[in-house]
Specification:
Blueprint (H helix, E strand, L loop, with lengths): L1 H19 L11 E6 L2 E4 L6 E16 L2 E14 L1 E5 L2 E4 L3 E13 L5 E13 L4 E13 L4 E11 L3 E13 L1
Antiparallel strand pairs: 1-3, 1-11, 2-11, 3-4, 4-7, 5-6, 7-8, 8-9, 9-10, 10-11
Length: 176
């Protein structure tokens, strides 16, 4: 529990310090919220127990420098358990793996607020049903369109005694 609390304090402190450094002269606007849906395909050993992941998130982004934003996001993700054939007509249904990922991120907008971007997020996934806390890392790329719509693809890994990973799509709408 102390590790979780320490990680939360560090994430909030880093976000606060980053947001406090933002000035109108170095940024291209004010902060914005976005809401997204995140379907994903489990990769690596994750595909042994799940064939699909689904989630949603809320993200707050704030310009920190020209074409660079910092963000804080929180969401809910579920790796949907699949039926595993053990042979001889015996099969078992794997349980769903559910978590609340919280990430502090950075995003570079290559062409300003509209166009391609690259981003990375780091944080913690609070795994439900007694699963504890995992370290989360999520590099990705995407495209932001006029009107607030954006689409991105990322690899997201949750590391704790091994890695649970997915290739996820984020379809989102930003509120200006």
């Amino acid at each position: 529990m102390r590790k979780v609390l320490l990680l939360a304090v560090l994430i909030v402190s880093a976000a606060t310090a980053s947001f406090a450094q933002t000035s109108k002269s170095s940024s291209s606007g004010s902060g914005k919220f976005s809401i997204g849906v995140d379907p994903g395909l489990p990769v690596g050993s994750s595909s042994d127990f799940s064939s699909f992941a689904i989630g949603g998130d809320l993200k707050y982004s704030l310009p920190a420098a020209t074409n660079f934003d910092v963000s804080l996001s929180a969401g809910y993700s579920v790796f949907i358990g699949k039926t595993i054939d053990l042979g001889s007509g015996v099969s078992v249904k794997a349980g769903n793996l559910k978590a609340i990922p919280v990430k502090l991120g950075g995003r570079y907008n290559f062409n300003g607020p509209v166009g391609f971007f690259g981003e990375v997020g780091l944080g913690a996934a609070f795994i439900q049903d007694g699963g504890g806390t995992a370290f989360v890392y999520a590099p990705g790329v995407g495209y932001a369109a006029d009107g607030g719509f954006e689409a991105g693809i990322r690899y997201e890994g949750w590391s704790k005694n091994g890695t649970v990973g997915q290739i996820a799509l984020r379809l989102a709408y930003s509120f200006q």
